[in-house]
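It is worth pausing here to work through a concrete case rather than discussing structure prediction in the abstract. The textbook approach is simple: state the sequence, then state the predicted structure, then interpret. We follow exactly that order.
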Amino acid sequence: MCDLLDAEKKPGRMKKLRRTLSESFGRIALKKDDNGFDEICVTKMSTRNCQGTDSVIKPLDTIPEDKKVRVQRTQSTFDPFEKPNNQVKRVHSENNACINFKTSSTGKESPKIRRHSSPSSPTSPKFGKADSYEKLEKLGEGSYATVYKGKSKVNGKLVALKVIRLQEEEGTPFTAIREASLLKGLKHVNIVLLHDIIHTKETLTLVFEFVHTDLCQYMDKHPGGLHPDNVKLFLFQLLRGLSYIHQRYILHRDLKPQNLLISDTGELKLADFGLARAKSVPSHTYSNEVVTLWYRPPDVLLGSTEYSTCLDMWGVGCIFVEMIQGVAAFPGMKDIQDQLERIFLVLGTPNEDTWPGVHSLPHFKPDRFAQYSSKNLRQAWNKLSYINHAEDLASKLLQCFPKNRLPAQAALSHEYFSDLPPRLWELTDMSSIFSVPNVRLQPEAGESMKVFGKNNIYGKGLIKH
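Step two, the predicted structure:
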């Protein structure tokens, strides 16, 4: 009789046990994030109250974001600035990930949950591994890094591999650490995307999205100045990217055409953040050995080490003029003195009235410079007069006194851009301007749309309002 009673009670106890366990533990699901990395999401499970042993598991994409706890597994990637997380403790190994979860209320640890890899995973390509990328050709070489065109064996996409050589006695170059740490947190369509980081004993490799050319090469291919509508679209994208980083208290500090990438769809992307600096750091003095000479502002040339976003805006003005005119705005050929002379010849030699505090700058010696009066910019660059409001915008960017330079966000609202579709100002950070109907690059002088075939980057031009 007792055995019969126990048999009748057992199913009820099993149901209660299953319900308790499923309520105590979350559901663990593995998926891929936007960059293809493994991502583990933990969510609460609900159980059926009807018969059977199944539990109701919601599809991952229907779970509200506020119910997810996200843990990204990067395996052997290099992450010098990772912040500790007191809620999740992560332990990595070659082929599996052990994750200990802590509850904030009781402080007790739940049992370890180990995810074993499939038998094929040790040989299959993975993110974070050097052998996951194939080098196709060398694109360029610098003092501490070489850039290759490559291909990902994980997803087959083209990438740019920036291979940084590590010296055992010197360690990882600080510019590489700075670039990697800054780019990890920047997600904008007009900023080059960092896909992956690979750290070995000999090299540190930054894996970027592959972008076909840069503004310097584009202008070399189309001498004499670019199509005015294309200048406007390139400048708008440059200002979008700069406004994004400036709002996050980051200065690029090395704006020049070589560091502005142009994709095959016409998207402009800020690149090479090796000299970039977060301006919220405790020290407010920076090196004045930044920015290529032609795009370096006069305050930095004169030895100023205290500057802000206005540093980048001078570079924007120089690039703007160069795109329109077809030649560099201030192509100094000798040294800093020559570079300053070229600037003062157009904008006028500064004094305390036009530039308060200029006499206190380390390298400003009034007797070293000829006294020039300021000119209208069209006198120096005649093509500015052919485009509505171009001269006014250029003059507000190319101000010797740093505090007078127009900020990026304000520049986006300048009348120069008034004929662009209003929807461009409503785009999200990751939305391209070319997602707006009829916004396309125009064929440059001497080119036709037929030349470019299926992949041509030119369309019907701008909508005029």
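Step three, interpretation. The chain has a mean pLDDT of 74. The domain at 130-209 is CATH 3.30.200.20 (Phosphorylase Kinase; domain 1).
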